[in-house]
Design a protein that fits this description.
Length: 246
């Protein structure tokens, strides 16, 4: 099996807990700390612009209100996605996926693009994220990895841009994981490390798939996971887990 070709330690939601999530400031923070890869969440605004957002509603991470799927991108541009985190980050915009992708490329940051659709927009979000990812990273030496908890989003991404690598996100590893991976043409399985058993880690890797765990915030736990054969992890604790952790 080919070794995992991407960074092994990935900053979760841009800058983990050291910056407001899913912001350009978070990505810059990750870069500054020496991280080589970031994970972020992509959702569609009401006008189908792919933007960075985790929740389906605006309240937790912006000063806006209501559903992301009902807010046009031009209105999102007026929002502050940093004040909830700290005064220092006040005025952080809600980034479009296009801006975030361009920043990753400019900074030399690898991207795990999590397709995070609002309910009912699974296929649309998968298609839009995959098409834009292809356009943004065209000709780039290292391509991003798309991932999603939503099989219809992955199926749509596969249909739109089959050549972009895909990862299947799941909390625990379901009994039918292998057929799901095959159907969706995934190269990697991404699970909650708290639900993972060592024999499952072995089975995934023996079947020829890479294994990524989220969200690992403790070096001792990470040591165990790497011993089990886990290929990569996302972390919130950029201050505790250095990017070159082995
Ligand atoms: O991609 C790993 C991780 O981001 C999945 O959980 O809820 O933080 O998007 P969540
Ligand atoms: Mg995510």
């Amino acid at each position: 099996m080919k070794p995992w070709p991407f960074p092994r330690i990935i900053a979760h939601r841009g800058g983990g807990t050291l910056a407001p999530e899913n912001t350009l400031g978070g990505m810059r923070k990750a870069k500054k700390l020496g991280f080589a890869g970031v994970e972020f969440d992509v959702m569609l605004a009401a006008d189908a612009t792919p933007i960075l957002m985790h929740d389906e509603t605006l309240e937790r991470t912006t000063d806006g209100r209501g559903a992301v799927a009902e807010t046009a991108y031009r209105d999102m541009l007026k929002l502050d996605a940093g004040s909830w985190y700290s005064r220092e980050h006040a005025g952080e915009p809600v980034p479009s996926f296009e801006r975030a992708g361009r920043l990753c490329i400019a900074l030399g940051l690898w991207a795990n693009v999590e397709i995070k659709p609002s309910a009912g927009f699974e296929a649309e979000t998968g298609t839009a994220a995959a098409l834009l990812a292809r356009a943004l990273w065209r000709g780039a030496p290292v391509q991003p990895l798309l991932s999603s908890f939503q099989p219809p989003a992955l199926a749509a991404a596969k249909k739109a841009v089959p050549e972009l690598a895909r990862g299947a996100l799941t909390k625990s590893i379901p009994p039918d994981w292998q057929s799901r991976m095959q159907e969706l043409g995934c190269v990697s399985l991404h699970c909650d490390y708290r639900m993972l058993l060592p024999q499952q880690a072995r089975a995934v890797r023996d079947a020829g798939y890479w294994l990524l765990c989220y969200t690992v915030n403790d070096p001792a736990t990470l040591r165990v996971l790497f011993d089990w054969g886990v290929d990569a992890i996302v972390t919130d604790r950029l201050d505790l887990i250095p990017p070159d952790f082995r």
